[in-house]
Amino acid sequence: MTSFSRRSICRALATVPLLSATLVSRALAQASQGRNPQAERFVQAQAQRILTVLADKRLSESDKRRAFRQAIDEVVDVPRVTGFVLGKYSRAILPGQRQAFAVAFRDYAEGVYQSRLGDYHGETLKVVGSLVRKPGDVVVNTTIIGGKISAPLQVGWRVIAAADGWRVIDVQVKGVWLAITQQQDFVSTIDNAGGDVGVLTAQLQRDAVRGDRR
Amino acid sequence: MRLSTPTRRRGRSPLFAVPTLATAVLLLSSGLVKAQTPAVEPQTPEALIAGPPATSDPWERLNRQTYALNASLDRAVFAPITHGYRRAAPTPVQRGLSSLVSNFREPRTVLNGLVQGRPGLAGRSAGRFVVNSTAGLFGLIDVATPLGLEAGQADFGQTLGRYGIGPGPYLIIPVLGPHNVRDAIGRVVDTMTDPVGLALGGLGTTFGISRLVASGLDYRVKADAALVALDDATDPYATMRSAYGQYTAGLVREASGDREELPDFDDPASPN
């Protein structure tokens, strides 16, 4: 091997660490642009908090209900979700109708929880990554294990930055977004009622009463 | 399948009962389980506002009638069988049956994985089939997953979607439940090209019929929680249609690597 070729090889080898460092730092920069650690911390803490509240066998049913309601108020952007699930009817609805719907929706939602107190058995949640869709709009990917879940459950949490912190606006399991599904459920119900939002509201009110009785 | 009637039942909101309903929605599509590709950032602001396309349902009237028929059939036949099986069969037996059914699907995943240009998925599924069919006693025990060969899933409907074929109209098939035209065609092709069926016998054989019964039972067991949750929708038909459309779109994105579009929550009219 000539001295020239040895020098070339040495120069080439010398560039490897530099090149590697450059590529690694670029990759890290790209990764950090794609993830949002704050949103991830929010989901890790608050989603786990809800799971823990639901599985806490020391709490009475009424205490659990109260703790859950408080957690939901602090974690979920309820007003935004309430508007979203009305879909195309959200724009046309009168203020009085909106208020009535919001109350009915809230009661109805709590009916869900009340009937399923026994479904939680100490599941734990772990954040596995996140993706910034745009500033202040992040999907945090998590895995839920334990409890009665036989295989790890992948759950995505769409969170947005509100004035007072992060808030959940939707949850995804196996490609299915729950608020989007809820919206299409509600909109179909209103469509079938000739566009009368009051029919949906009345239905939710009846369901809420039924939920209380369960 | 036990399905709710198309008329409304008790109303419940998914978002406020995330863990339970998350599991339930997952199970709605059970038997087709595969980790969801993480959402990716859309390229344009318009993509954010556009939202997921609503499922095309030009045959809604007929579909709702078929849905009602399936619901009745489920209440009368499939739900009682399912619940009896769940009560009577020990958990290891149920898991064994589920593993066996899944193992028979691996060759189909290998084929479709190759056609989709996903050699990793195809190789993993091939490895799972070999390992589970031997060390796992013909697939009764899933010994591949602990070895790092995690389960994947691919079918011909997904393959068509991977190459740009749209879902087509929504279609509820008697007994079989929700489909779209693309996936219904895919189902036929998968059945005709199924290596296990070709090797061991199709529906004209005892093996084929036994396999069909086992697959149906396993599917119905996995779907049970989801169908209970479906009862709680204000319009169960619309809820199933939405969940099915999103789920199949997710499977296609998984194969194609396409970006997911999500609605802007400040423009709630967008998804409809």
Plain-language structure description:
The complex is a heterodimer of chains A (214) and B (272). By secondary structure, chain A is α+β, with helices and mostly antiparallel strands. Chain A has helices at residues 3-34, 37-55, 61-75, 78-84, 95-114, 178-192, 197-213, and strands at 123-134, 137-146, 153-162, 165-173, 176-177. The longest helix of chain A has 32 residues, at 3-34. Chain A is globular and about 45 Å long. Chain B has helices at 18-28, 45-50, 60-88, 91-115, 119-134, 156-162, 181-193, 195-200, 206-231, 236-256, and strands at 170-173, 177-180. In chain B, strands 1-2 form a two-stranded antiparallel sheet. Chain B has one domain (7-30, 57-263).
So what's the overall shape of chain A? globular
CATH fold assignment of chain A: Nuclear Transport Factor 2, Chain: A
Report the sheet-strand fraction of chain B.
under 5%
Distance between the termini of chain B: 28 Å
**Largest sheet composition of chain B:** 2 strands, antiparallel
Mean pLDDT of chain A: 80
What is Rg of chain A?
Answer: 24 Å
**Strand arrangement, major sheet of chain B:** 1-2
Give me the count of strands of chain A: 5
| Intertermini distance of chain A | 86 Å
Runs of chain B in which pLDDT lies below 50 for 5 or more consecutive residues are: 1-51
Rg over C-alpha atoms of chain B, rounded to the nearest angstrom: 19 Å
Sequence of secondary-structure elements of chain A: HHHHHEEEEEHH
Query: How much helix is in the residues of chain B?
Result: 55-70%
> What do we call the CATH homologous superfamily of chain A?
Tgt2/MlaC
